[in-house]
Each structure stands twice: as structure tokens, then as C-alpha cells.
């Protein structure tokens, strides 16, 4: 579609006489403007960084470009600011940086810092350093009690 539109612009729109100027835009550009254009100095990508607002999901993560990046579990349900660059995804809450991950080149991945789960039931035996970051699904902690105990308290089986 874009190739078709570019061709239409070049061959039709730029060649016909414009109602306001009385000239073909292509001829006017070549005569008055093309010679005045100068090359831009080399600079970085136009979109060097993006700032987004996301809500932390129940899986302790924010979603960005099909990937999920972990944040501290206490922020579940909160709105956070996500700064995305070519190299990193950094998350702030109330003006404080709470997570910073290497940006994943893949899709549908989970980028996890296990320090974000410290204090969650079943995660105590898995305390790791904040630099221990993996790109893999997080293991869910096993139940701490048999289901029969929960059934007894709740009153019956499901």
C-alpha cells in the first residue's frame, strides 16, 4: 500500500496543477526548494526513548512490546512509568526507580529479577542477588499446605 501511495504521489499528485498555487507541486519543489535543502547532521534515532504508563499486572510484571518485565510484587495494580530505550526498560513509581531490565530482543518473553519476589510466600528459599536476572518463565511457588486443609476451613470441596 505504501509503495502504491508513493507512486501515486510522484506520478499523479505532484504532476497536476495545484488549485491554489497554479503550479505542479513537483516542478515548484524542484525550482524553489530542492536546492535550499541541506543534509542533516548525523544524529541518533528519532525515537531514542519512549515513556509509557503501565499498570502492574497480577503476575508482578509490566507488558511492553509483547514482553513482560518484572517489578516488585508490592506494586501489583499500581500505575508505573516505563522508560524504554534501545538497550533498557526502566520502571519508576512515585519518582523512584523500582526496576531496570536489559531490553529483550525476543518476543513473548518474561524478563525476571527474582529480587522482585522476595517476601512472597514460597519465595524465601529462592532469594538471589538483584543482578541475577533471567529470561525464562518464573516458577510458581508450591502450595504451603495440602488443599484438604483449605477445604476444611472454607467448608467443603470445590
Amino- and carboxy-terminal Cα gap: 55 Å
Taken together, the total number of domains comes to 2
Q: Low-confidence runs (pLDDT<50, min 5 residues)? A: 125-140
DSSP, total strands: 8
- Derived structural class: alpha+beta
Main sheet specs: 4 strands, antiparallel
The coarse overall form would be elongated
Strand content: 25-35%
SSE order, as H and E? HHEEEEEEEEH
Name the strands of the widest sheet in spatial order: 1-4-5-6
Assign a percent range to the helix content.
10-25%
Helix and strand topology:
Elements (H helix, E strand, L loop, with lengths): L1 H12 L11 H9 L15 E7 L5 E4 L2 E4 L8 E7 L2 E6 L2 E7 L7 E4 L19 E3 L11 H8 L4
Parallel strand pairs: 3-7
Antiparallel strand pairs: 1-4, 2-3, 4-5, 5-6, 7-8
Structure description:
The protein has helices at residues 2-13, 25-33, 147-154; strands spanning 49-55, 61-64, 67-70, 79-85, 88-93, 96-102, 110-113, 133-135. The chain is 18% helix and 27% strand. By secondary structure, it is of the alpha+beta class. The chain folds into two domains: 2-36, no CATH class; 49-135, no CATH class. The strands form two sheets. It has a four-stranded antiparallel β-sheet, with no helix packed on it. Strands 2-3-7-8 form a four-stranded mixed β-sheet, with no helix packed on it. The protein is built from three helices and eight strands; from the N terminus they run ααββββββββα. The chain starts with a helix and ends with a helix.
Amino acid at each position: 500500500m505504501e509503495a502504491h501511495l508513493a507512486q501515486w504521489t510522484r506520478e499523479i499528485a505532484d504532476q497536476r496543477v495545484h488549485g491554489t498555487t497554479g503550479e505542479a507541486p513537483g516542478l515548484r519543489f524542484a525550482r524553489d526548494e530542492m536546492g535550499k535543502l541541506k543534509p542533516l547532521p548525523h544524529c541518533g534515532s528519532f525515537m531514542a526513548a519512549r515513556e509509557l504508563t503501565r499498570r502492574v499486572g497480577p503476575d508482578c510484571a509490566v507488558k511492553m512490546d509483547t514482553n513482560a518485565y518484572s517489578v516488585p510484587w508490592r506494586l501489583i495494580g499500581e500505575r508505573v512509568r516505563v522508560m524504554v530505550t534501545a538497550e533498557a526498560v526502566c520502571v519508576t513509581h512515585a519518582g523512584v526507580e523500582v526496576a531496570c531490565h536489559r531490553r529483550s530482543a525476543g518476543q513473548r518473553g518474561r524478563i525476571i529479577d527474582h529480587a522482585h519476589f522476595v517476601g512472597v510466600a514460597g519465595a524465601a528459599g529462592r532469594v538471589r542477588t538483584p543482578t541475577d536476572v533471567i529470561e525464562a518463565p518464573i516458577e510458581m511457588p508450591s502450595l504451603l499446605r495440602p488443599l484438604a486443609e483449605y477445604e476444611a476451613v472454607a467448608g467443603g470441596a470445590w
